[in-house]
Amino acid sequence: MTQSRRNFIKKAAALSAASYVSMNLPISMQDVAKADEGLVWHRGSCRLCGVGCRVELGVKNGKPMGLRGVPQSRTNFGYVCMKGMHFWKCMRHPDRLTKPLYRKSKKDKFKEISWDEALDIAATEFANAHKAGGGNAVAYYGSGQALTEETYFFQKVMRGGLQSNNVEGNPRLCMASAVGGYLTSFGADEPIGGYSDLEKAHCFFIIGSNTAEAHPVLFRRIMRRKLDNAADVKVINVDPRVSQTSRIADMHLQFKPGTDLSLLNGMANVIIEEKLYDEEFLKNYTTFKSGKDTVDFETYKAQVAQYTPVEVAKTCGGSFSAEDVKTVARWFAASRGTVTLWTMGLNQRKQGVWANNLVHNLHILTGQLLKDGADSLSLTGQPNACGGVREGGGLCHILPGHRPVANEKMRAQVEQAWGVPPGRIPPKPGLHTMAMFSAVNDAKIRAIWINCTSPVQSLPNCNLYNKGMDRDDVFIVTTDIFQTLTTQKSNLVLPTCFHFEKTGVYGCTERRSQITAKAIDAPGDAKPEVWIIREWAGRLAEKMNDPVIAQCIKPFEGLDESYELPKAIWDEYTQKLTAHRDNDLRGATYEVLEQMYDGVQWPAPTKDFALTGGTVKKFVKGRDPMADTESKDDLPYQFYGPAHADRKLWIWLRDQADPEEIPDSEYPFYLSTGRIIDHWHTMSMTGRVPELMRANPYAYVEINPKDAQRLGIKPGDMVELKSRRGVNVLPAKVYEGPVEGMVFAYWHDQHEDRMINKVTKDAIDPGSKEPEFKICAVQVKRVSGPKPLTPYIV
Amino acid sequence: MPISGVVITCRTEATEKVLADLGQYQSLEIHGSDNKGNIVAVIESDTSEDMERLIDTINKHEDIFNVGMTYLNTEDEAEQMARGERLAKPFGFRKPLAPDPSDDTQ
Amino acid sequence: MVCYWNKNCIIFWEDFIAAILTNLKKEGVVKQEKNIIVAVLMLILLTVLLLSVLSATAQDSQDTHPELDEQEMFIACSDCHRESTPDLEKEWYDSVHGIAMVKCYQCHGTFETFKVTPTREDCATCHADMLEKCDKNKPCWECHVPHSFKSEK
Predict the structure, then answer these.
(1) Which member of C56, C99, C125 has the closest CB to residue A247?
(2) Does the model's ipTM exceed the 0.85 cut?
(3) Same domain, A228 and A255
(4) pTM score of the predicted model
(5) With bands split at pLDDT 50, 70 and 90, how would you rate the model's confidence at C34?
(6) Which residues are paired to A649 by β-bridges?
C-alpha cells in the first residue's frame, strides 16, 4: 500500500469513528488521492450446483470482498445457499496452485517449472502416446464444472486434432442416465419445461432427490409454493431415506432401495385402472415401445397390470400401504399441474435409464407436460453438465450440438464446421468413463488429461482405478486450482484460473446459458484453461507435424485469453455447431448474455428472442420458435427432437429389475451414498472454508435407530462399513433417516478411512454406462466408542 | 499493516488521564475527544494479531469502558496472501486471546 | 441533546438515571441501595453500550463465542444449541430459515468471524431487494424478529 493510500485510509478510519459520536474533526479529504474506488459488483453465476443461481462478486481494488444474490434472476431471485455464499473465499486462499508442477515419476517430489516447459512436456507426452497407439492411447476426462468454452475446445482438439473420441467427463457419473431417459422418452435431451413451472405446480413429486440439501435454492421455491398454498399444493417425497426434503412432504414413501421401478409402474397401474390418463394426448402424441418393438396401449396396460398396489407395497418392503400408492397416483394424475424432480437417486443406478423412462411414462400417460406447472424436471447436479458436456460434445459418443458420433452425416457437419478433412473424426464412440479408467489400469491409455475433477475419489470402487493411476507408464496431467487426491497422482499439475478469474458460460438445469465475466486476476501464474489448450495444441501440431491440429486452433490464435479468446470459442460453437440443432444458441451471443440478469434458455435462434430469456417451454407452438419452424402438422405440440424419427413421445414398457448387488446373508445391509448441504463433491473447495468445514467435518454414516439398537451403536460411535471391495470406518449418526436395513454415508471426505467410494460398486447401467453409486451391499459393525477425529484435506 | 478507526469510551472525568495514557502507544493516533468521554483514534499495527492484542490491553484500562471498532482495513494482509505469503491469522481470524498472566484482577 | 441510536442515546439515558437517583436521594427514599442500583444500572448500561456499539459497526466486531476446544468446534452449531439454547434452536428450526436450511453460521459467522447481531449488509446477501424496499434506518431484525422471522406486520 502506498503512503498516500495509507494516509487516505487512516483519515477515512478517523472520520468513520468520529461520525459515530458526532464529533467534528478538522480533517479534509480533498488533498488525498482518491485511490479508493469503492466496491464494484460483478455479475456471474455461482460456481457450484446445477441450479444456476446468479450472484454478484463484490470487488474493491482488485480484491474479492463478498458476494450477494441477484434478485432479478429467474433462477434464484436473489437467494444463495451457504456454499454460494462462501465459495469466493477460494479465490485468494493460500492453498491456491500458482505454478506448474512436474515430476517424471509419480514417486518423485513435484518441482516447479515454467509454463513453457510444462506445455512442452504435455505436448511431447501426448505426441508420444499417440505415436505408439493412435487416438486410442490418449484420453481427456473433463468435468461438468468446466466452462462450455473449455469443454468444447478440449474436445475439438481431441477429436479433430488427435483423432480420439476418448472424450469423457464426470457427468457420466451423474447425468448420463437422465440423458438416456430424455433421448429415449422424448427424443431430445433436457427438460421440456423449467423452473417457472415450480410456481405454477399443484403437485410436486420428488423422487431420488434430497432437494433441500442438493438444490437448496430451488427447494426454497418449492417450500414457498407449498407454504403459501398448503391445502392446494401436494408434495410427495419418495426416498428410502427420510431427509430434510421430507419436512414439507404431505406423504413420504420409503421403499427398499431399487424397488422404485415397481412403485412407478404401480402408479401407472392405478392411473390406467381408474381412467385418470389423458386419452387425447396418448392418441395424438404417443408411441408405445417394448425392447426393439413398437406395441400399443393394450400391451402397455397388460404389462403394468401385474403391478397392483398390493403387490407394489409388498415388493417395496411394506413401509407404505396399497392405499398410499393409490393416493399418490391420484394426486399425480389429477392435479392441475404436476412437476417431478429427481437427481442421483434415479440416475446412479444400474436401471437408471429405465427409472427415468418410468417417470416420463407417468407424465406422458397423464398429459402432465407442456402446460405451465407440469414437467418432468431432471435436476442437474453440476453447474455446467448440461451446457458444456451434454451440449458441447463432452461425452465419448456425442458431438457438439446433440449429434451422435456414430452418425456419418453428423460427423461430416462437424468436420465441415471445423474445416478439417472429411473422415477426420473417428466413426466409433470412444471409451466411456469406467472403460476409460479400466484402460488406464491396463496402460492401454498412455496419456490422459484430467480437468477440474477428482476421479481418484469420485469413481466407484475407487481402489481398483487408483492402482491404474499410480502407474508410471501412464502420463497424467491435471488442471486444477488446489491440490486434490487426483493431482497427487499426476505427473504434471497445471494451475488454473478460478471462477470470476476468467470469462465463460455455464448452462444450468433448465437449458439456461449464463455468462460469468472475469472480475479479478488469478493469483500467481495460474492461467485460463482456454489459453492452456491453445498453447498445448500449438505445440502438438509442431511435434506431430500435423497441420490439421493447427487448423483446430487457427481461429483462436493471437486472441487475448481473458475475453476475446473465450468469446471466439463461444461464437464458433453457437453460430456454427448449434445452428438449426435443437439446442440452437445463435441468439445467445456474449453481447446478449451480458445484458441479462440471468441468461438465455435454448432454443434461441435469434438475438431478439434471446433477449426475452428464450424458450420457456419446448415443443409448444407459439412458445418455442423451433416448434413453429419445424412444424409438420396442425397440432399444437411438435416433437422435433433429433432422436425420434416418428416425432412422438415414447412410453417404454420397463419391468422391475434388481440392482446389481443386493444384500445377502454375508453382506446384509444396503449402502447408499449422497450429499449434505454444506459440502460440494470432494470438498477440495468447501473443505477450505472454515464455516463449511465445521458444519460437516467428516463423512458420517447414518443408521436407523432400530438397526443401531440391534448392533449396539450409539451416536458418535465409530462404525465399520465393509463390502466385497473395501472398508471404511466412520462416525455414526443415529437418525430416523435411512429405512431399516439400509445405511447412508456422505461421500465428500478425502480421508482414506472415510472415503466411501472404496466401498461402493462400479456396476453400470448398460445403456447410459452410469455407475450404481446408490446401491451395494455391506456389513455394518460397531468398532468403538466416539473417537476424536481430524478433518483431512490434501 | 491493518488500519482501524476506533471510538474509545472512558469515564468523563478521567478523559485527560486516559488521553495521556493512550499517548504511550506508538500504533495509536488520537484524532479527537469530547466532553462526554468519547475519544476518536486510529490504530495502525503490523499484524491483525498485534491490533487485537492492543485493543484487548486498552480495554483493560480501569477508566476505559470500551473500545469500539468502526472501521477496519486489512488490504495489506490480502495482498500478502496473494503474493503467496503464509499469514498465521489473516483478516483478524482468531481465537480469544489467553488471559494475561500479569493481570491479577481476572 | 441530540439522541441518535447508540452511544449518545445511552449517555443521555445515563445522565437521566443519575438525575432521577439524585432527586430520589434528596427525598430520602434511596440511601445505601443507591450505590447498588447505580452499579447495576451501570452494568446494564455498559452491556447495552457494548452491544449497541458492536451492532452499529459496519466492519469486524469484537463479539466472541464462548471458548470451545478443537473437537467441540467441529460440532455443528445447531447440534450444540439444541442443548444449550433449545427454545432458540427450535424457533429457528421451525422457521423458513430452518426448513430452507439457512444455518446459524450464515448469519452469525464461525468462531473467528463471530457476530451476535448480523447487519443489514449480511441480510443483503440473499435479500438485497428488501434492503431497497424497507426502512433504511432500521436493522432488519427489528421487524423480522429472529429466529422465527415472521414480520411484525
Answers:
(1) C99
(2) yes
(3) yes
(4) 0.82
(5) low
(6) A286
